Amino acid sequence: MTLESQQHLAPQNIYPGGLYLAAPIMQASLSGYSDRAMRLLARRFGAPLTFAGVMLDKVLAHPRARRKAAAEISDDDHPIGGQLMGYDPETMALAAKGLEELGFDLVDLNFACPAPKVLRRDRGGGLMNNPKLVRDIFRRVRDVVSRPLWIKLRIGWDHDEWSRERFETICDQAIADGVDALVVHGRSVVQRYRGKADWEPLRRLKQRYPSATIFGSGDIKTAQDVVTRMNENNLDGVAIARGAIGNPWIFAEARALLANQPLPAPPSLAEQAAIMHEHFDMLCELYPEKKAVGYFRKFSIRYVKRHPQRKLAQMDLMAAMSRERVHHAIDKWYGL
Which of 226, 258, 290 is the last residue of a domain? Predict the structure, then answer.
């Protein structure tokens, strides 16, 4: 794709619900990943908006959970979105009000999560089959919060006509009720993360509602994916999820392409090492050492994808059992 072909993309600055975003990209909510460390690195490399991990409405009602959520946010962690998951309108409203009081800059209602334990409790993606309850939850939350209110969806429970109709009903109702943005993942709930994301329903949705703010997600692995998906589907922006794990550079790269600038040079091994060291040190500040070491492994698997000897570097990082050994493995394979 040439730079000239990108000229019809959405403007760099967007204001969904009055929230200023300097670029039409964001780091999506990722349970077990998008903690303060990942968010701050994403923000440094150009993510104008990040999300904390999804929170259950009932859990957030407890004072201890609220204190933990509040402790994660600092002055350098804004704007930040809080994503909620639940099925009772009153409990969701109380939790959403709690997020607002804790300082989250927007509330996002998750009706998309495909995890089996979530579906068994009729939460997340399970509500794609219940447009009426989705609307009841949205309206009740809208009554009590003054921050921008978003909804996270999938393109349906599965791929049959019945699911498509319910997806469209949910979108119709949400837009009629004044949702500030829809974030739509291009897979069905039963598909989970298998197969390829289908962006055609997103293109049709934006065509049907050109004035609505619609973000897409699914299989965004590179900066070029961001540009291609926005171009092909005329969307307002893209949420980057798994493609940002161990890859904060994707935000700087995407912003460059969206601004019709050359793709930045790939980070050198020394630059990668510096970020890995910093990321791991931040995790050690957030968690006990043993937990931080185990937690960092799932990021290491993604970081080493840029390494010319990926498998060997990964083996040493996976084998490291202490803070000292993690730093030693990074230095060994990244030439420091």
Answer: 258
Q: Are residues 94 and 125 in the same domain?
A: yes
Which residue, 208, 232, 206, 204, is CA-closest to 220? 232
The sign of the dihedral angle between the CA atoms of 60, 65, 66, 71 is negative
Query: d(Cα 203, Cα 229) in Å, to the nearest integer?
Result: 9
Residue type, 308: P
Is residue 41 a contact partner of residue 280, using CB atoms and an 8 Å limit? no
| Closest to 307 measured CA to CA, from 250, 266, 278 | 266
Single pTM value for the model: 0.92
Rg for the chain (alpha carbons), in Å? 20
The answer to whether 333 touches 315, Cβ cutoff 8 Å, is no
In a domain, 263, yes or no: no
Domains contained in the chain, number: 2
* Dist. CA 256–CA 259, nearest whole Å: 5
Do 132 and 235 share a domain, yes or no? yes
**309/238 same-domain check:** no
Q: How far is CA 114 from the centre of its chain?
A: 15
Each residue's pLDDT tens digit in the chain (336 positions)? 333 344 445 456 677 888 899 999 999 999 889 999 999 999 999 999 999 999 999 888 777 777 777 767 888 899 999 999 999 999 999 999 999 989 999 999 999 999 999 999 999 999 999 999 999 999 999 999 999 999 999 999 999 999 999 999 999 999 999 999 999 999 999 999 999 999 999 999 999 999 999 999 999 999 999 999 999 999 999 999 999 999 999 999 999 999 999 999 999 999 999 999 999 999 999 999 999 999 999 999 999 999 999 999 999 999 999 999 999 999 999 986
Instruction: Note the maximum CA span of the chain.
Output: 58
Burial class (CB in 10 A: 0-12, 13-18, 19+), 235: buried
